Batch of 3 targets.
Target 1
Amino acid sequence: MNSPFREEQLSDHSKYIPKNHREQNHPKTGGRQPYPSSAPTAPTSRNISQGNRPQYQEQQSEEYLQWAEPAPPPLPLGDGSISLVGRIATVIGIAGIIALLIIFAKPLSQTVRAFLNDDAQTSEAPARREAMLSTAAAPRGHDREQQAPRSVTTSLPSRSATSGAVVAAATETVPLAPQPQATVAPPPPRAAETAALPGAQPELKAMPVRGVTDAEIRFGIAAPFSGPAKELGQNMKLGIETAFRAANAAGGVAGRQLKLLVADDGYDPTRTPAAMKDLYDKDQVFGLVGNVGTPTAVVSLPFALDRKMLFFGAFTGAGLLRSDPPDRYVFNYRASYAEETEAIVHYLVRVRHIKPTQIAIFAQSDAYGDAGVAGVMKAMRQLSADNAKVLRLGYERNTVAVEDAVSQLQKSRIPIKAVIMVPTYRAAARFIEKTRDLYPDMIYTSVSFVGSTALANELMLLGKRYASGVIVTQVVPVVDGHSTLVLNYKSALAKYFPGETPDYVSLEGYVTANVLIAGLQRTGRQLDTEKLVDTFENLRNLDIGLGTPVSYGRSEHQAVHKVWGSQLDENGHYQPIDLQ
């Protein structure tokens, strides 16, 4: 409301109005606005008399100073543009955050859902397994859906006849052509479900191992079970089976029974490939144990090495099974022929005081005989003897044709006082028979491969004088002894093979098999050739009652180096002798 006083006093109060407001045009004051629109209304003349005008002016001036504070000036145009850009940037940033949330919301929710589902499946696995087993024989839902006619439900918009607007949605079933049926195997239970089953064990997906099943471990032996050397194969087999049966009666090895399969090579190298092939392809054996013979080993050893088969405890002391460094898959129990012949040469020279030139060699004409001769020559060189002067006599394998050997012995210019034999038992018995009367004081010695018991039996058939005094080096203790090992062997032999006579060859088979069993037991249930080889290469100081420890290593694949001495008495029994 306008008043004369306000117009009259305008010039007096204008000094309290902010400058920027005073300079703005005002329609009623000639282009001047007396005060900001937000300021309080000035008092009118009705409230002010002439008498109190000066007092009021002073009071008004004080009050105006309080409420007439200048308002902040408006921002320039440039600052407003910057503010607008900032607001736009803020909006864009918020929109970007929302977009990221939309993009990653689904993966995050799926991850959380999967985590929750895994926890739920762990607790629900037993019930789910029962449901799977109960529905295994029934058609799966997926198959039933494929067998039934398929249909698709679609929403078809309809428009009003008058306005054309969409007013309803109609559903329509469209039949589809039948699809070819497919047989879908039910998926296997997941690892989490299997692990959650009561009593379930972690599944070990191990590759099948030749000759090893959940119930048994199959080993093979290629040896003579016919022909002149058949007793060697039969007795070696007897000793191994005795140890196997004792182990099987005690629960086997890691729950598996031990089984021995045989192949007859007749001690004939030409028959050995077929015997090995039968064991490998037909019988599917895990490894070989107790193969008999050196000439047959010349064939069987490469066969086994090419196939990385275990070649354990062969009944031979030949050097071809004792490479330096040793072949990985070949393990020997017994002392070598070189060690046996060295022991007997030293005995004859140092104990019996026979000159090296007075010692002859009667050996089989093959790899077996050659290995024995090499051992004798090595021992002779250690004694500084002239090997050229050592008489070598021979015969053909699988024969007893010793007549040429006897003739050469008779023609020797140097009197022979001792013969080191590297034969089989029948050839040895025939040679002794033909020479005993010619050389009554002759000392006959033989390596262990001869077959000690068979030799004693053959000689006793000829007469006591043929048997008495014959020396045989052994790779096992004396059978007539009373050590724990020998007593256990005799007890097991009588239990599982009643009526069989204890024998050095079968005792060696028994000892060899027990060393093998010790390695199998240390390897455990998860058996394969490589693990068993590693076990043997770390086997140290095994005590099985031999009187000497059994040890292997990476550079040592022969368990024992000890040689025992034995001598036949007039009753055909072997008595221990000291070879030192």
Target 2
Amino acid sequence: MAAATICLVLAVLLQAVMPILFGRMIDATSDTGGDSRRARMRAYSQACAELAGIVGVSLFFTAVRAYVFNSAGAKVVARLRVLLFRSMLAQETSWFDAKETGDLLSRLASDTQKLQAAATETVSLALRSGISAAISFALLFYTSWQLASLATAVVPFLIGATFIAMRVVKRLAKESQAALARAGAVAQEGLANQRVVRSFGAEGFEVGRYAHAVGDPDADRKTLAKDSSLALGLRQAGVQAAFITTTAGLGYASVLGVWYYGGLLVVRGQMTTGDLVAFVMLLLTITASLSVLAQTGASVVEAIGASVEIFAVIDREPEIPNEWASKSDDDRATELKLVTGGAAGCAFENVVFSYASRPDLRVLDGLTFSIPAKARAALVGPSGGGKTTLLHLLERFYDVTSGKVLFDGVDVRAIEPVLLRTKMALVAQQPALFSGSIRDNIAYASRARGLAVDDAAVEAAARAAHAFDFTTAFPDGFETTVGERGVRLSGGQTQRVAIARALLAAPRLLLFDEATSALDAESEALVQDAIDALCVGRTSISVAHRLSTVVNADVIALVQGGRVLGSGTHDVLLRDCPEYANLVRRQLRAADSSASLA
């Protein structure tokens, strides 16, 4: 960047001399000085040769400056994008609960793009224009201090107009960025849920939502939403147009005044025609530079508005950091225990928890429950009772309000989160696959940890999860692309790939969050067989609504109203827990009704 700045300064210095050379060329073509024709031809040719040399050298410096600035700016913004994405992923889950994906994508794409423009073209133009204006300003006084004093009379008005315009543009730029983020969130929802949109024939509705957020260019200005990106953009364009017009008008007024007074000086013999032309060219250079500075100033203000949002994320310290900056000897001892241990038990001790978005609503209210190592546990009960929340607390997606969550006898808050989560594997009701191959998805944990992907291990995991047969039936086998979120696979196939992915991660604790509830009977049977096989000799926790899938669990807990109303085997709960018995009877009646209909 230092070399680019030097090249920029040299190029501007050379370009600033050009008006002086033009003035010498004009004086050489006139005989007002009494020089001979040969002398004037020699002076004219010399000025032309110097001008050509200056232009050539200036172009070379300009090319070097442009390449270095643009390449450096591209690298800086690429680094910034990675840093921003890393900071986003480092935030706690509750932070994502309060954000919209489209908003975050807008920060990564649109906001960083504005910073890239500011870091490359805008900075280069601003430096070049500022230096050019300063040098030309000095040459004005060198050429004629009388005319320079007249020309600079408009400077206080220019400063005032700039100050007012920048304040307004900064505010509008920040509002415009927020509006674009809202529009991006609407678009992301519509595109991500396009099957739901299509199934309800809601394409027109979604287009209307997006058009409202962006702003309809064909709508009347009075009916245009004031917080739409278009409305804010129009207001911003109006302010910029008024500012540019004001600066240009002041500049031209200065030029006209200089022409008039300078002509009088030439007539009086106090100034040559060439000096007047050189002065006016210098003044026009200053006017053009100030105009460019005005435009780049608006871009800089927009970039500042974008940077505020970007660095707010980058500088934010997550409430639950994924990685710890420093570790004590006790931390290292805990890590060694976690790494070398087998199947792990877990426990919840008097856990109270509320989500940050609903702090007054207790999801868990003094819940106590333990699961021994190698046990197959199940959490059952009505929706909203807190079953899935228990899994999230185990993974430390959230911290408890009070109480303790223990993993292998250790409070999860005493374990580095990234290490804790590598010892568990979660299979959700609607698991998300990445848009790569089946092999890539099964080996995701190994790839994420930088480990070599063993094809035999991938295939063994697929066999154990009952995913091998349908995978090898595809023409491309394990290299079959699953599409975004696994849309090219059926629900049962997606679930079995997710189970294989969990198995290959070699977890000490398996978590299943209603892994079969969204499947048909045949797919459910296959997935349930895979889960049953995986749980042998491992600790597992399954959240289920259909009791038939967990009736053989070693321990079942009925979770309702944020508490465990009863725990034990199916037979024990059926005998000792009336709420569980009622739940079983309701499901049996529902099953009988379905059977009679069939």
Target 3
Amino acid sequence: MESPRDVRQGDNSVRHYLAQDPEYPIVIPFHYDDFQNLSNDFIFSAIRRNYLIRDLFGYQSPLRQEYFYFGRTRLVEDVIDLHRSGQNSGLFGLRKSGKTSTIFAIQRRAKTIGCRTLLIDCQDPAIHAKRFGPLLEYIIAATRHELNLRKIEVKLGIQADEISENFHRLMNQSLNEAKSDLLVIFDEIENISPETAASTHWRKHEDSLLFWQILRAYFQSVKKYKMSFCFVGTNSHLFELPRILNIDNPVYLFAPKTFIPMLTFQETREMIGRLGYFMGLDFGDAVVAHIHQRFGGHPFFIRQFCSQIHKRTPTTRPRQVSRKVCDETEHDAGLDIKGYLDEILSTLKSFYPDEHAMLMLLAQGNRRSFQEMAELEPALVEHLVGYGIIVRHDEDFEFAFDAIASAVERNLLVPLPLDLEAKRAEIGKRRNRIEEEVRSALFGWARRMSTDEWRRTFEECVTDVRVKALGLLTVNHAFSRRSSPLNFVETLSFVKKAEQLAVEGISASEITAAMDLVNKRRIDAHAKAISDTDYDELIKAFELLENVFCPPD
């Protein structure tokens, strides 16, 4: 029989190993003495004794194993199903939304059914620092390695035409040798996308265009074995750009967009309940509902919050977690979570300023400008709803959970430079005057129409949803200088119809272009800084419109 010292060393060895690999399944050591002095709970006590050495909630790296991965099962299956039918997929979400953990889940699932996958981490300088030709060479070499094929020298050439031809030939050769299809997963896709890439040649030059032209051409070519793509990143901007460098974007609408969903209440309860059970923490449904609401089902933030509860709870377990404990934990967990939320907002501000501007508008309570921007750029709302940051209720929007609302409001407390305040005041004053004068001009134009002409024009210029909300407005009501319910975007739609508003030397297209600029820059100025160049362009647009619509002072 082993000595007590040996028993302690065995326990310590297990604890040490599990501490080094937090995702490894728990090993529960039992000793002979445990069975000599049986208790009603001796098995569960042994389990908890070993689980309590780890904070199962506090694991921050992407989850490589399935034991602690919760929810999103349907998402994983959808990606696999699309690949097996020869289609592409796209997964998008903010930092810490579980994108990389989902990639690992896709790879695990693919392996069980014989699908081969290749992961390309575009955030790695070894990837984004390469030009488009060397990166295609890398993909062929990595494909052969993944498919267990012999290593060959891969040289595609220098000119785009020979690079494309050789890529087609060598990739076909590789897939035919392996007799296998391949799912290529591009993670952090924005790092090789125009406007957001980490390296200049992808961000500003033609590498992105040529790279995707070649891959799209290969994807569409007739062949025995297929290669499909799963694109993973923060934003689906690459697939929404109609043109790159004024040339048709080869991957425009190339893959269906799916945003990584937040956990449902049931999935939140399963995650908290299962992990908490083995840590001796009992979360009742009311407490789970509070945590779910506080963080909108965001798994990372929920885990970090529960981790703080674990750290402040005595080790004599099991224990019931109360609402009071949650409230007391708010401050400690808030410091860590605040940092992550501020980082998310900083990323949006730097790389996706329009989405950030819309959040600022919503936090300011400026719902009219928010709605105008939503109608002008519907994809921006789609992104924010998809990220789980805002939710939509009919025509109204609000923040999806308390923590993100607080983080955005903190951003509003940063004082504005005096010159920015002055710019905003000037923009607001001139915009309001022009909007009133434009309505007067439209009133004169529309009053000449018959009732049927006005009805057709109104329904063409106003969306169905808004027509349902407003009803058929009279000309007097629609273009009232002071009380018109039409927003700026709707007013602009009428201006585009009323070509006779043009004056000598200023065409109808110049008028609508100026109004488009006023609308865009006006929203920018509400929610973010406006550069001197943009401000000068805006003032010129004001001057053109004032020349057309405003009577002399």
